[in-house]
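Obj: model holo form, ligand = guanosine-5'-monophosphate.
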Amino acid sequence: MTKRSYVIDQMISAKSIAARVEDLATEITTHYSGTDKLVVVGLLRGSFIFIADLVREIGLPVEVDFLEASSYGNAMRSSREVRILKDLRGEIAGRDVLVVEDIVDTGFTLSHVTRLLRSREPRRLEVCALLDKPSRREVEVQATWTGFTIPDEFVVGYGIDYAQSNRNLPYIGKVRFTEDT
Ligand code: 5GP
Ligand code: MG
Ligand code: MG
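Output (holo structure tokens):
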């Protein structure tokens, strides 16, 4: 299988992301004020840079945990089947939980993950998603906090990959495929 040639056009600059992350963290800090320890759950792998930046701006004690779900593989379309590849290490019953996701697309992943985590009876469970593509939604699901609402484009960077590359770009870019000669 060959990978098509592509270029990446910047969509959201590193500076805009940093400013938005700061605002989100301020809202989250206010929302959870008084919580003794917030459990911040990053959905691997796409959220790893976002969660790292976000927790450093949250002015509350936090515990960081990770969960890996898969609905994508290496293909560019979502399947409806969501598998848990790596579960949380910690208990969340009775705790305040914030799920951190890179992109809400069809909504299948988030709806599956939040249903699973709610079954463990956290005190409160909210979601912070960096990106939202509402035009692609197939399951009704909404993050409590969203960084940016974007059109239906395939994006990479700031933790988000294309075939396991480009996660280390400091900005969010859209993938534009070019003609192979
Ligand atoms: P959903 O289950 O909402 O359709 O898919 C969510 C997951 O699909 C995201 O967490 C992300 O991993 C992947 N995804 C959705 N849109 C994009 C995109 O534009 N680029 C990349 N690299 N992954 C995406
Ligand atoms: Mg994801
Ligand atoms: Mg991926």
